[in-house]
Amino acid sequence: MSIRKRKGSDVWHVDIRKPGGGRIRQTAGTTDKQEAQEFHDKLKHEAWRVSKLGEKPTRMFEEAALRYLREQAGMADYGSKHRHIKHFQNVFRGRDLNSITRDEILTALPVKSSQRGVDTDLKPATRNRYLSTIRALFNDASNEWEWIDKAPKLGAAKEPDGRIRWITREDARRLLDAINDDWMREVAAFGFATGLRQGNIIGLEWSQVDLQARRAWIHLDQAKARKAIGVPLNAEAVAAVRRQLGKHPTHVFTRAGEAMPYWETKDWNAACKRAGIERFRFHDVRHTWASWHVQGGTPLNRLMELGGWASYEMVLRYAHLAPDHLRPHADVVLMGSRTEGVPRLVAVK
Q1: Where are the transmembrane segments (predicted)?
Q2: DSSP letter string over 213-260?
């Protein structure tokens, strides 16, 4: 029988022999026999067109979502991609992948984020991350899996150009003193000393640290740029790690003896407020570390290696903080003596 119920289930299932060989066995997703028969006939018709006319089989969005997440498993940003796909699946579940348009995808982008019952507007950068994930899914479906003929064209939203947020060493010391929780203070201190991203710090394991050689490393699959990072540890970083010895068998930084599943943003913001520091995210600790390096004379190409950035353009954001190498060129437009109160420009040879 082509449609049947399995033992102990009220849902109908289909079993179809394809014209070119092989079978299609799957749930019809309904307890209504007529609906199940219509679903069966639709699948059988599509299988005939695929075999005889060379058409691509219909693929549902949830099929693409499942395959994409399987192929992304183990990537450093898998958690974010899973969250993005879950959002789009709530919108496009049951839709033929080929029928989803560019405008529908853009309309489906989230505009609000809810954390602990508080709704906030999503920034363009966050919306672009959702867009990047769904763009990658459709590009894979078109170019890699050959499930669809053409992927929708999805450009990125314009993000405002913002200043690099960094604080002075005095501010940083005041902030560390204002943090009440030891675990958070240790993570922040290590961040100021190494410039590592938050996720890499709270996920750091003892197998990634060599205190004798004063170094740590971030594996390829943990790095945002998909490039392993070697991390030299200065005296403050080594001291922060040594203070964690014996607290946990695998993870370096822990909270109450347990590995940290997430960062307490609310407590972090409260500490910043006590320290009198405004608009300072934990990621700005990384910006601060990079700014201190540039101001201290670290060449940009070395900073790129230290920070594990994928492109030189990312490091150029900090170049303006140390324009010392441009000082000789500034003298080219020195003004000479005044004649009748009008400054005269002279070139300095």
Answers
A1: none
A2: TTEEEE-GGGSTTSS-EEEE--HHHHHHHHTTTTS-SSBSSEETTEE-
**Is residue 317 annotated as part of the catalytic site, yes or no?**
no
Q: Active-site residue 309, yes or no? A: yes
Active site residue 197: yes
The amino acid at 35: E
Whether 116 is a known active-site residue: answer no
The pLDDT tens digits for 53-106 are 555 677 889 989 999 999 888 777 888 899 999 999 999 988 999 899 999 999
Q: What element of type H or E holds 14?
A: strand 12-17
127, 255, 286, 293: the active-site residue? 286
Q: Please state whether the predicted TM-score (pTM) of the whole model is above 0.85.
A: no
Distance CA 156, CA 132 (A): 8
Min mean pLDDT across 42-51, 89-98, 110-119, 333-342 is at 333-342
Looking at the DSSP assignment, which residues form a beta bridge with residue 4? 13
Opening angle at CA 214, ends 300 and 314, nearest 5: 20
